[in-house]
């Protein structure tokens, strides 16, 4: 139909539309682990890293990183934002009396022209499990086009970690999934009874309802917070680590990593738990892993349909493959192949496009 946007354009519009609202930015601005990490990264050693430098802020949002860079003494800051949050950034820059230092540009970074090379690129590009939303592609584009040789990337390194989720009795987040599944089944059973009263029998469809809803709940990850490291059955392992200044973004489209966990306690493994860290050049680390500190990213829980009973010394081995969803490149598909010792190999598949959210505790608890 004439005037209808192609699917890619419609999805892009929805993506940028989401970030045009203060609803999304409120959540990020309330994340003090995030805010303190970037504040420290910019202001610690600011005379060496930021002062008198030209800075490019990719995906500037409400403009907070641009304002901090200007206050840290940047010669000039180019703040590029594709969503309508650009209006919020203009307000913040104007109210901070920094309009002569910060230039706000309403555009995708791939479609803009920056009038000079830059010394520093700062961006908060990370998504759930680090790579959801695929925003690093835009950061890498800006890096390759405008960053001076030897220029600075904030953050400078990124790491994805994966652990075995073996919950303590009082903190099993997979109960959340099972409770939702039981609710759907109970509602279906009630529907069957109601329809029988209307002279039609759907009881033969119950197995299919259970199967379809089970597939749905166990193929979507859960975002959780405040998990204790005690909920891990062994030390976590790195899935991916890269240097933001040199990595080829095409290497992030699909990658695999073998893992081998040595179990440290008697436990029932009910899923895999993923998170990320980012490092900044001055030693600041943003860690979204298990612990008491709130992060709006949280950890990603990939629940298993059947738990694994393990004992000290057991080996859980396998491979994780992360790939982009061909139908929605801003989402990831996670495939986990795993086995205990020489037992049968099992496979679990998750789509990061439909994340179930489970937040517990206060956002104001910081370590």
Automatic annotation (TrEMBL):
Q: Which InterPro entries match?
A: Arg_MeTrfase, Methyltransf_25, PRMT_dom, SAM-dependent_MTases_sf
Instruction: Show the GO MF annotations.
Output: histone methyltransferase activity; protein-arginine N-methyltransferase activity
Q: Which PROSITE patterns match?
A: SAM_MT_PRMT
Q: Which domain of life is it from?
A: Bacteria
Q: Where is the Protein arginine N-methyltransferase domain?
A: 180-340
- Give an example GO biological process: methylation
- For whether the record's keyword set contains Methyltransferase, the answer is yes
Q: Mind listing the UniProt keywords for this protein, alphabetically?
A: Methyltransferase, S-adenosyl-L-methionine, Transferase
Source organism? Moorena producens (strain JHB)
Which protein is depicted?
Class I SAM-dependent methyltransferase
Where do the Methyltransferase domain residues begin and end?
55-151
Question: Signal peptide position in this chain?
Answer: none
The record, for CDD domains, names:
AdoMet_MTases
Q: Which Pfam families match?
A: Methyltransf_25, PRMT_C
Q: Which SUPFAM superfamilies match?
A: S-adenosyl-L-methionine-dependent methyltransferases
